[in-house]
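ok so i was messing around last nite and threw this chain in just to see what happens. nothing serious, just curious
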Amino acid sequence: MDIRYLSTDLDVESLSDLSLVVDDLGEEVLVQQHGPVKHFNHASIVVAQSFCSGPDEVVNCFCNLIENLSDEARAIWDTCFTRVFDIGLEWGFTPSRYRFELRPSTIERLAKIGASLDSHGWRGI
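result:
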């Protein structure tokens, strides 16, 4: 089994209702989860656009969407205490190593929207 890129999720958490942010992102995203979790609100979102194929492209697609939120939705985004892009990989046996890269301009965009980056790997079965 090969090591491969699976997807990039955006995980957002806030004390405020995230419905306006989720609605503002529109049909460009697929909402995996949205609603209250414990004492806060959570949303887990993926880009619906199939032309965004790798981590750098997907993060940039998300950045475009966040940068174009309405003022009201952006105000909610700015108060979120979690804004994490989670890059998911499936671990296999080949190749012996796997590498992905985010360009400096992408990292700069992440910083400007106040988001962080995480990566998870899962062993395939």
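not much to say yet. The longest strand covers residues 4-14.
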